[in-house]
């Protein structure tokens, strides 16, 4: 077995040795590893085999060297022989070279000179060529400096662009070009800074010139509107054409009678119309816009410009604190705003995208809200209607001007309705003072007219027509006082003043008519009514004055239809129109007349109360004086003289007569009823504890005087004994006690035909209680002394029955 393995192992070692000999050394590792991986001690046998192979190769090398040694020795011998010849040849070459060098020194020197000249010539040509490339660059850079010096910045930027894109790249390898290229961005920034500085100066300048620009634009709008108004009148047009303005200061063409007319032609004889370009130099804006556009930073410029203009807009919209005091304050305010937006409109159309329509609309909406708030606040401070009217005119032309530039102004015309209310309020305050002054200076007596001229003057101021008075000869008196034509004239003046505000509002005649009627209604129902009510309540206004006031209000009431016609003639709007507002003067004057009548009744009653307070009855007197009390006679005399005022009123006009008669009758009846009630209250006063029969008799005398006064017809027109019925309660009560007819009273109580129907049981009981207490102390029934006990029982019985009736009524 071992013998069999040995040949196999030897064969394997041979294979490995051949592989080692024929294989690259990098691949020997796996081969050697296989030796160790085989049978144990195999590497020893391999090493032995390897030593044997090495010895074999050494023997072969030695054989080969021995075979070639003689040839090697011969070659060395021949080489030694050649060395001597080589040394000789080297000497000859060296000598030849030396002689050649000596002979070519002059040629070499000339050649080097030629080479040097050629190099110089080449360098000169190269220099000329490069200078030809550099000269345009230097010329362009010099041109750039000149442009910067002359402030031609836009051209300078174009030159920079050419330098960067065309010229400098050709000679970019030179230092001076690198310096130029490094300086160009700095120059651009310098141009940006300079142009921005110019823009800031422009913005500051435009802020100062906005007032002038706005004033010019407004003046042009006024001229244009005047022209259109003239053309419309000539052409018979009844509508208003909105003003439209162009940026060159000439209005757009309009048709008139089939011919094209240019609004600018109307001012041929006038000075040339100035425009925004004439008043403002916009070149800094254009220049700065172009510069930033070229530099690729247009968006930054646009944002900066818009931001600054927004700030300026806020400054322009900020009013002065005392702007409301004068019209000049409002005019400057509007001029500045118009100037601002005229400039923006010009920039909008003259530049592409610097400002957009959306931006101007945003600015305008912001400005419009601020303007409306400012005007609403400051107009509320105005108390002068003339100033408010001037403000309205300024707002209208302000709105028309900006509308011509395409800005929506409907909210401004809506604001005018608020300003109109403020205007009406100031007018009402002014006219309230006028009315009060008229009432204070009035003498409250009929107007005397001495001649026909005076009569015509009065009739021209007030629509008074009375056939009876016209037939009378001069001198004569008109029923109303001098305040009536004055009030009527002032109402017409108020309508004119109110109409002034309605002008140029672009409203229809119907709307103007409605505004006039509403404002006139306010004047009548609030201002004039208040003045009349205050006048009537004044303490110094007596009964005569109150009666005259009633007559005056009647005439003013009748004149309301003439005011209706007056407004209709102004507005040409038929009063039959469905939506036409009616004047409320009728109710105003009726209310004032009723208040005056009520005041007459009140003052009469107050005067009666004053006389009643003078009464000084001796309630325990045994017998009456036989004559009426002095205070009552004075009271009756006062009433007679007072009612004579009514009878002395002019009664030529049936309306006046019926009016004065009605007032007199009502006043007389009211006075008699109040007198009767006051006398009854005097008898039934809770503080009055005792009344004697003598006092009753004295009181009866006074009531008789009152009845005589009533029956004397102090005021004509009463039928029968109507006025005496005011004292019927007193009369029946006094008759009951004077006659002592208790049996009849008690028997007929509750019967419709009772003799003492108006005597209330409670009233009779209260008065009887006062007399019963007096009889106990003063023995009123002394003439019946023998029957004293029976009389006392009768009184007690009557009292019980009266109490029974009172209790029955209460239950």
UniProtKB/TrEMBL annotation:
PANTHER family cross-referenced by the UniProt entry: EXOCYST COMPLEX COMPONENT 6 (PTHR12702:SF2), SEC15 (PTHR12702)
Keywords: Exocytosis, Transport
Protein name: Exocyst complex component
Its biological purpose: Component of the exocyst complex involved in the docking of exocytic vesicles with fusion sites on the plasma membrane.
Family, as annotated: Belongs to the SEC15 family.
Annotated organism of origin: Oryzias javanicus (Javanese ricefish)
Pfam families per record: EXOC6_Sec15_N, Sec15_C
Domain Exocyst complex component EXOC6/Sec15 N-terminal: 49-218
Domain Exocyst complex subunit EXOC6/Sec15 C-terminal: 412-770
Gene3D superfamilies noted in UniProt: Dsl1p vesicle tethering complex, Tip20p subunit, domain D (1.20.58.670), Exocyst complex subunit Sec15 C-terminal domain, N-terminal subdomain (1.10.357.30)
Any one of the GO BP annotations: vesicle tethering involved in exocytosis
GO cellular component, one term: plasma membrane
